[in-house]
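Work package 3, deliverable 3.1, input record:
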Amino acid sequence: MDILEVKDLMVFYENAIAINNVSIKCETGKVTGIFGSNSAGKSTLMYAISGIMMDMKRKEEMKGGERITVVGEMRLNGEDIMDIKPNDRARKGVVLCPERRRIFPESSVLENLKIGGYLASRSQAQETLKYVFTLFPALKDMKGKEGGFLSGGEQQMLAIGRALMAQPKLLLLDEPLLGLSPAMETRLAQAIKKINEQIGITILVAEQYARPILPVIDYGYVLENGGKVLEGTAQELIDNPDVKEAYFGV
Amino acid sequence: MGTEARRKERLDRGVKVRTEKLYAVSGWQEITYLVLPRLALILGLLILPLVMPSMYWQKVLCSMGVFALLAIAFDFLAHYVGLVCLGGALFTGVGAYISGLLSSSTGLSPALTIPIATLGGGLICTLLLLPCLPLRGVYFAIVTIIYPLAIVRILTALNIWGGTEGISALATFPNIWVEVYLILGMVLIVLFALRRLVNEDYGLVLRGIKDNDQAVRASGINVTFYKAQAVFITAAIGCFCGAYLSCLYGWCGLSLFALDFSILPIAATVMGGLGTLVGPLLGACILTPLSEVLRAIGTWRIVIYCVVLLSFIVFKPEGLMNWIQRKYHQFEHWEKI
């Protein structure tokens, strides 16, 4: 059973094509990876799936800027979500943890997490909060600290924690390892695996550098210049010589 | 997100692409394409006073020119330097009082008082605003709007320089043609000078300050100095307007510190299109006569005025000029995906 099914998705920024006929599937309860270099269309795909693209489109329209066109099919558990607003998609369980973290820098760690838990019931929020603190013990010690003063790795933990608080069924992680040290990279990759195994959330993770993420995914896609060039299980991707060269630097 | 299988494609017109390069002078079509909008603007403004039916409408043109200048200056500071300045009233007031005091004490003619008020007033306003130049956004806006309010109170309390009465019987312009062509000529000069300025290296620094002043500072550029220069340019334009008004009325008083001079230019800029410099001129050309025409229907004037402004903000926040420019430079067609 696939929780998310994207079929023939195309995204244009004005006349430039950002996503070209991409079809991907996320199997329920599994971790799916999307790899690609800069400008491959990873973030655009994430924005399209989470619906943020609709918001961007409207804002650009209002100020007369770039025209964004999105065409294709997107189904969440078989239901068409192409025309559903981003906030309603979050309500349905599609939660994005955006690139560059986008935490609220002037709110404390605890407040950041509470804002994320807007959609959760009181008991759910408490439970998830406890879980986030067991998953990332570092956050517990700095509950009262302002988000902006956290280090990059801590901010990323916080961003993932905040996304978890929204009770996702499908968690979208956009470049969770951006700008982190190798040690932190492995820790976060393990955390992603744990989230998937312990509470059974389906995860779609987009990342440039595949090495730390590949071991934790079940299935992966490789994008290049907006198009899908490769897909396969983690092992198939690891064995592929092109992937090796391009994304492992072997 | 629709699922239609076609999208609108927006492409630059061939002639636009050609005129960006050397081919601009390759034929009449290209030259016309480049010159026509500029010529229409210049000739339009110069002919406008001649076709006005009465002296009253020529006076309206004068105040339109004032608001256009203030709006262009506001747009320059807001869009190219990133300082939202509500100090139009401060600038006009300072300019008017300098020119008025000079004229009443020494009897100098407007030909001298206006340039002195322009430069001196610009300097004074820059010095007044210098302490708050590191502030950005709403703080700078608040400080610039506090000054005119405070100065009005101070003048009233101290009862100096004519107090609430103002200074009257100042030297005026010899005739209506000087009045109207002085301000319209100034609008054209300022418009083209600023447009040139913001595209030079100097303007590049200013735009950099708007986008990220820390990065500019890291490049070894004194940000505050550049900001002060930009504020001086804006203030000098505003002071010119004030000095001009005092000579136009033969009177200067507290109403030249009125907040109209801060607010109306912003309205004109919103309507005309932020960041185009010519847009604010267009906005002023529409709003000032509109408010005169609406004068006939009394109090409803303000309501209609507000509705026009609100609908622009809600439905066309990019402003008129951006829209017109796009239509002029680009064409659209449907393309199948």
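The beta strands of chain B are 6-12, 167-168, 251-252, 330-336.
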